[in-house]
Design a protein that fits this description.
This protein is mainly alpha-helical. It contains six helices and three strands, in the order H-H-H-E-H-H-E-E-H. Helices cover 70% and strands 9% of the residues.
Length: 138
């Protein structure tokens, strides 16, 4: 407060102003402390975001097993592609298709739904289309 306090001592009605000034100084101190805490939390959050983005980037830069690339390519070319369609085309068991489907869904390359007959059908996500396009398979 310094010079303001000295000035207020000279003014008889300044007691009220001094109290308000002290209150404002106290609030400022609290806000400054909160700001420091929030800045620290923001920095930690930004670091975590960077780490997660790197993990996601690393995950997407992995080479997929050939069967998964074949699955994505077949799905891109086949409307309402089902587990049985994929299994027959790739000559593997439906269980193997389901295992790889789970991984492709986790990587956000593939999405699925259920037909009226409760059979899963597959479709590429935008990320899946981009992957195939980047590999020159679309």
């Amino acid at each position: 407060m310094g010079w303001i306090t000295d000035l207020l001592k000279e003014i008889p009605s300044a007691a009220r102003y001094k109290a308000e000034l002290e209150k404002l100084e106290s609030e400022y101190s609290i806000l400054k402390s909160e700001n420091t805490v929030l800045q620290s939390k923001l920095q930690a959050a930004e670091e975590e975001i960077g780490t997660l983005e790197q993990k996601l980037s690393d995950r997407h830069n992995q080479d997929l097993p050939e069967i998964e690339v074949q699955m994505l390519t077949f799905i891109a070319d086949t409307a309402d592609c089902t587990t049985d369609d994929l299994a027959a085309h790739l000559e593997v068991s439906p269980q193997k298709i389901l295992r790889h489907k789970d991984r492709l869904v986790e990587l956000h390359y593939l999405d699925y739904g259920l037909t009226a007959m409760d059979e899963e059908y597959y479709q590429l996500t935008p990320e899946g289309r981009k992957l195939l396009d980047d590999k020159g398979l679309l």
